[in-house]
Structure formats: structure tokens, C-alpha cells
């Protein structure tokens, strides 16, 4: 039989592992883009950490004060005033724990949603990601509304004597509705990246690895179903539900963080591959404009450049209408006779998957030509 001590020990271990996963994810992101390059998925990672920490504390004190789960109309009448007050505190904490559960699970969904939002920029999957975000927000709203309307007036959720009824104490409907909403959201999230893997031409091994990373939502779905089944089978034992909730937290943390952690094991992240500049010298990875390493770039010796955008038909549009950018002079070789620089080409789904495999970030661009204003002035003179 599961004891409170067993649940506490397992909860602490899984919390430690979950925090290690989240912090590793944040560390990887800072290594890639620096603090100023962090995005909404990183913000929701911090939110998830906060809710998990809060829920861990709440679950501990539920074990201290107890809960009305397991009481009946008859047994509730026999409770002493001191016990009633203790259980009332425990029931309030249980209600708060349900709120933390909802916010934590959906915060982790937001982590992966905003991650995919960056990966699918300028692709049709980007529009799909926006629809899925609104759908996930809808499921979250339904879950919160259900939490506050299942037992009304809301004070009945922590009323001990007289017994408020099974619906307010066991909240069995939560174990059914929340998994349904969660699984619907997870299936929608998985629909964003997986179709790309069937379209791109990459080695089978890489495709398999990416399939596991991008399809890791299936593990969340399995964990959610297991929690539902075991919690309903032991609905009179709150410890079982607590135990499976923390397991679901850990599996979800790993699933949503794995794609963003993978670049930590890339040789390019640690500068083991150098990039060659125009003068033929090798620069440390990230210093040649890749933007993967954080750092302050010098504003000295900058000069204006103009940008000409080329359409697919090959026509160019002059940037004389006002598009000019300040770029570091170190990115230009003054000894070269080529005054134009060709940047990455049309948006490519294959490029997206390849880049996500190496750098965990997608920047889809169009073909543009950059020419130096200084060289143009020299040519005219």
C-alpha cells in the first residue's frame, strides 16, 4: 500500500529530475541565443517551474493536514472540530493543487507551441501553429471554468461537515474531462511538425530521431491515460492520484524540453567547427553572424548597406526606398572584389528540419543581395 512518505520521496526525486530538465533547456537556449534572444517558450518554461514548485509544496501540506477524500455523510458527522478544521485546510489545498495541475500542464503545452511557432516561421505550418495555439487556449479556458463550476457554491469544495457530496470531494469528473482536453491539445500540437518529416529528404536515422523528438507528445498522452485509469480505480486514495500526477509532470517536462535540449550535444554549439570568413581565416562558431552564441557586438566601424530583394522570377527591387541596416565591418572583407553578398534562399521545409536538427532554431529568409554603400560611392568616383 502506498504511504505518504513513499509519495513524498518519489515526488521530490521527480521534481529534482524535472528541474534539471527545465534548467538544462534554459541553459541550452542561453548558449544559443543569449538572454536577450529568449522567446515565449522560454518564458513559459519558467512559468512551469513556478507552478511545479508551488504544487510540490501544496502536496506536502495536503499530507500534513489531510483531505476529505474517503469521508462519507456518516463519518463526517463524527469528526471533532479540530479534525474538521484540519481537513478544511487540506481541502482548500487540494482545490489549489487542481489549479496548479491545470496551469502546469498547459504551461508545458505553451512551451512546445511557441517553440514550434519559431520553427515554422514563414511556412504554412506557422499558420497551423497559430490555430493550434488558439485551440489550446480554448481547452485551457474550458478546464479552468470547469474547475470553478463543478461544485457550486465554490465554498462547498472545502466544506467538511456536513458532507458536501462526492462531486465536491472526489471531483471524479476532473479525471475524465481534463485528460480529454489535454489529449486533444497534444494531438493538435503533434500535427504541426510531423507532416514535414514525410516531405523532407534527410537520412533515415536523422528522420527517426526527429520523429521521436517531435512526436514525444505521444508519451504525454500515454502518461495522461495511465494517470486517469489508476486515479479512477483508486479514487478513494488521493495518494495514488498524487503519485501519478508527479509522474505525468516528469514525462511532460522531458517531452516538451527534448527538442530544445538536443543542440546541447551538437559540436557546432561548442565551437568545435569554425566558420571561415572571406579572408580565409577561421572564426569561432557564432562569431560570423550565425547568432547562436551570445555576446555583445561592437558598434564601432559599422557602415550602412543597402538590400536588394530578388523574387523567384529573378527581378530585383532596389532598397533605395529606405531599407538600410547597420552591420559590423568585421563581417565584410575589404579586400574582396565582390561587392554583393548572397544570403540564404527561399523558405524551405527541408531546410527547416535540417536546421532544427542542428541548431534548434529556424530562420526562413528570402534571397536578398546586400551591397555596400561605401563601394557604390567608390565606383561613382
Any chance you could write out the topology, listing elements then pairs?
Elements: H1 4-33, H2 40-65, H3 73-77, H4 81-119, H5 124-149, H6 166-169, H7 174-190, H8 194-197, H9 204-214, H10 217-233, H11 238-261, E1 275-276, E2 282-283, E3 302-310, E4 316-317, E5 324-328, E6 340-342, H12 349-358, E7 368-372, H13 373-380
Antiparallel strand pairs: 1-2, 3-4, 3-5, 3-7, 6-7
Helix pairs in contact: 1-2, 1-11, 2-4, 4-5, 4-7, 4-11, 5-7, 7-10, 10-11
Detailed description of the structure:
The chain has helices at residues 4-33, 40-65, 73-77, 81-119, 124-149, 166-169, 174-190, 194-197, 204-214, 217-233, 238-261, 349-358, 373-380; strands at residues 275-276, 282-283, 302-310, 316-317, 324-328, 340-342, 368-372. By secondary structure, the chain is of the alpha+beta class. The strands form two sheets. Strands 3, 4, 5, 6 and 7 form a five-stranded antiparallel beta sheet that branches. Helix 1 runs antiparallel to helix 2 (40-65), helix 4 runs parallel beside helix 11 (238-261) and helix 10 runs antiparallel to helix 11. The longest helix is centred in the first third of the chain and has 39 residues, at 81-119.
